Every structure is written in C-alpha cells, then in structure tokens.
Amino acid sequence: MANLLQTKYWPHIDGLRAFAVMAVLFFHFKTPGFSDGYLGVDIFFVISGFLVSRLILKDIEEFEKVRFGRFFARRIRRLFPTLAAVCVVTAIIAYGLLDNERLTAFGKSVGAAIISLSNINFWSESGYFDTGSDTKPLLHTWSLSVEEQFYLFWPAAKMFTDARALKADEVKAMITRFADTAEAAKSAGFDGVQIHAAHGYLVAQFLSPLSNLREDEWGGSLENRARFLLEIVRAVRERTGKKFGLAVKLNSADFQRGGFDVDDAKQVVKWLNKESVDFVELSGGSYESAAMAGAAEEDNPSSTMLREIYFIEFAKEIEKIAKMPLMVTGGITKRETAEMAMESGAVEIVGIARAYGYNPYIARDWAAGQNTDVRLPEVKSKNKTFKVLATMGMTKANLYTMGEGGMPKAKRSPLIAVIRGQMKQAKLTKQYRKWLDQA
C-alpha cells in the first residue's frame, strides 16, 4: 500500500490510455476489428478509478479524511484547460462544417461539456454509439461527465441509509406524523389536505404488493396493505374535525406487472366510502412507470382530448362504486377537455395544475371563455424517461417562480430544468435529513 501511494508515475498507465484512445478512434473510423467503442471508454473508467482511489487513500492516510474541496480543485486545474481548448478548436471546425440546426445542437453540447452534463444532454437526444454520432463532435465528453457526476454525487449519496422495513411502532408513529402535519396545515390557515397514496410514495408502497413484502398486520392481503392508508385517514379526520377538507390521491393502477391494479383500487375506494373523505383524486403510475406524466398515453392513437385526460376511463369504472366525488387529473390544457370530463358523469372535479404552471390566470380566463387552450412547450427527445422528467421539471420550475412572485416562462431548457430540479430536491432532502437528526 505504501508503494502504491508513493509512486508518482506508471508508464504502463500511459500505455493503457493510448490503447483506450485508439480503440475509440478506430471505432469512429469504422476500422475492421474495432466494432466495440465502449471498450476504450471502459478502460478509461478503470484507469480513472485506480488513480482517484490512490489520491483518496493518500488523503485518508495523511489527514484521516477526504478533502473534497482540494480533490475537485485538482481535477479542475488538470482537466478544464484541456477541455476548454478542445471545445474552442472543435467550435472553429464545426462552424465551417455543420448546418444551422446541427450547429445549434453543438452549442448546447459545448455548454453541457463545460458543466459536466454531456451524458444527460446526449441521452436526451439518443444513444451514445448510435447512427447520429458522426455529427456530434463532443460525444467523447460523455464519459468525462459521468465520471465528474459520480465524484460530485457520491458524497451526497452517503446521506441515505439502506432501506429497511419499518417496525410496527414506527408505522404507528408515521400515522401520527400525518395527523400532526394535517393539524399544522389547519392551524396555518389551509382549508384541507390531501393524502398522497399514489406515484410510488410511502402510502402507495404500502398498497403495492411489489414493494410491501411485510408479513404482519400491515402487509400481505390487500386489507392489510390498505390499513396504513385507512388509519391515516381516520387519524387526520379525528385531529382536524369534520369541516376540514380531506382528500385522497389514489392510483387507479401502478402499470407494473403484479402491482396495484384497478380491481385493488376499486376495493380501496369501497373501504374509503365508509370513511369521512371529501373526494378521491385518481391518478396512476410511479416514477418507474410514469403514467401520471402521460408516458403511458404517448402512443395512444385516440383523440387529443382522451390523450390529455389520462385516467378518465378508469374513473368511469371506479365511479360505479364510489360514494364520494371523484377527481381526475392528467395533462389537461384545453377547456373543452375539462368540459368533456365533467360531462362524462364520472367525475366532479378536474385537475389542471400543469396548465396552471403556464397560465396563473387560467381559472379566470376559462370562466370568461378566453385563452381556452394553454400551449405547453414540447420536449423533443427520443428518450421517454427524460421527456417525463423534463416535462415535470419545467412545470415545477414555473410553479416555484410564481411562488416567489414572478411570472411563468413559456420556454425553458428541458435539460436545465431537470438538473435544477434534481439539485433542488437534493438540497431539500439534505435539509430534511438534518431536521430529522435534530428532532
């Protein structure tokens, strides 16, 4: 180990670097025998991991900790000048070779490379070694961005502990927290709260047979899996009183094989019929199968209105047994779509949050018959997952802007919206973790 930390130069490392570079170059020049361009990239990752581990071990040996500030400063001094030079030279050549559309895409790739987001930028367009790679001069910066992101987010990942099943007393304590929060919302002046039992969050995890593998009173049968939700509803109602609004957001289905399905949803609604619930909002999917953002309907050949209001057909099924009003949500951007949903007789409320994110006066406008079609920006990407994240990210960015007194923007960078959203989420998670440690 001492010899590993003392040695400053290994000639064979440079030899491996040369081989890795040649493997990638030969791939792009379509040289026979070099059909796997990933080989060179993989070699670079191994070399980098070896050298970086050496630096980290040396820090631990000398200072008994990893000095991340010094670590990143060293990487910036070593890599950024070369990266900047490559971008400048490539930009000069690209200006003479690329048409306007590809030049615009190249400009985005330069910005992404500088801030170590090349992989996300190219991922949002298509695959790494796809047929369009010849017109992406900075494609090789993809691997560098992955490496930098790993070093940046690896320390943050240590915030989270390994997942484990809650103990029975912790489940009951969690129910009490929901009631505490609802009571705090009432004290703050809110008229009601909604219990989020959809999209793969905690309550939805209890409902799903895929994530709830418990063998006690909180798992197993649907009755046991729904107990957590029903106990939360009762605790919140008891704490806030009958005049305080109480809604439940429920998945009509998880859209995952063996998961929570529409028959499960019907049964849960039957149980909710016996509780004091003011309405149930129907949604669907999770971040693994994001139907709530329209991913499941993207290729639906039906009318535009039906594609906008994703869960209306499920609502028609559940309305047959529901005794409380139903609300349906989905990408409603047109007043005629909302009217169609209401006229179906299946629902009494429709959600228009995404359209509101681009027109804060939508309720007033629609009541007056004005601006009845809200135009949302289109995310141009072949990657469905990125499209979902970007669509939600841009809407959330506008909602945050309005919350701070500003006006929504009609155009935002999908890539920047995703990155800022993830950074904001990481910051909030860190704050919550700190609060939990102090509680």
Q: How would you characterize the overall build of this protein?
A:
The chain has 439 residues and is mostly helical. The protein has 2 domains: 2-157, no CATH class; 168-376, TIM Barrel, CATH 3.20.20.70. Helix content is 57%, strand content 5%. It contains 18 helices and 5 strands. The protein has helices spanning 2-6, 11-28, 38-63, 68-97, 100-114, 118-123, 141-157, 168-187, 202-207, 222-240, 262-273, 304-308, 312-318, 335-343, 353-356, 362-367, 384-403, 414-438, and strands at 192-197, 245-251, 279-283, 326-328, 349-350. The chain has a 5-stranded parallel beta sheet. Strand 4, helix 14 and strand 5 form a beta-alpha-beta unit. Helix 2 runs antiparallel to helix 3 (38-63), helix 4 packs antiparallel against helix 5 (100-114) and helix 17 (384-403) crosses helix 18.
